[in-house]
């Protein structure tokens, strides 16, 4: 895969992950009295590790994490988090799962493209992307489970 195309796509994930960090931080605050608020806070920290790892990967390829992502993505994430919170916890969980599914789809596509390029030098990137995919999958399942439990009035708390 062309280095510039790879950097462009990694920067997409960088921006997406920053957006998710801010989204979940806002939701953690909005739903702080609920178990889901604690979940959102924890998920935000996992997403922050994705931001850091992708930034490191971009830098190791000789690129720079996009300034646009650093400026615009937090604003979008905070705004989206606030708006989604207004729809209520159940709807916020549903929308979060959809965002996570989009991330999974994009991660899967990039891994497939990297594997089909056949370059062994991109194995480290694929490992990172697959790890992020697994986290996004776990977040989706957790949001779906919490939503189902909320609908059945069986949400767990600690």
Q: Remind me, CATH topology?
A: Ferritin
Mean pLDDT: 89
Spell out the CATH superfamily: Ferritin, core subunit, four-helix bundle
Decide which structural class fits the backbone. mainly alpha
**CATH class, anyone?**
Mainly Alpha
| Uncertain stretches of 5 or more adjacent residues | none
How many distinct beta strands?
0
Query: Roughly what fraction of the amino acids lie in strands?
Result: under 5%
Task: Name the helix and strand elements from N-terminus to C-terminus, one letter apiece.
Answer: HHHHH
- Could you tell me how far the N terminus lies from the C terminus, measured between alpha carbons in angstroms? 47 Å
**How many independent structural domains?**
1
Helix segment count? 5
Any idea what the shape is?
A: globular
- Whole-number radius of gyration? 16 Å
Which tags fit this structure?
mainly alpha, single chain, 158 residues, Ferritin
Please explain how this structure is put together.
Keywords: Ubiquinone. The chain has helices at residues 3-30, 35-60, 67-86, 89-117, 123-151. It is mostly helical. It has one domain (3-151): Up-down Bundle (Ferritin), CATH 1.20.1260. Helix 1 packs parallel to helix 3. The mean pLDDT is 89.
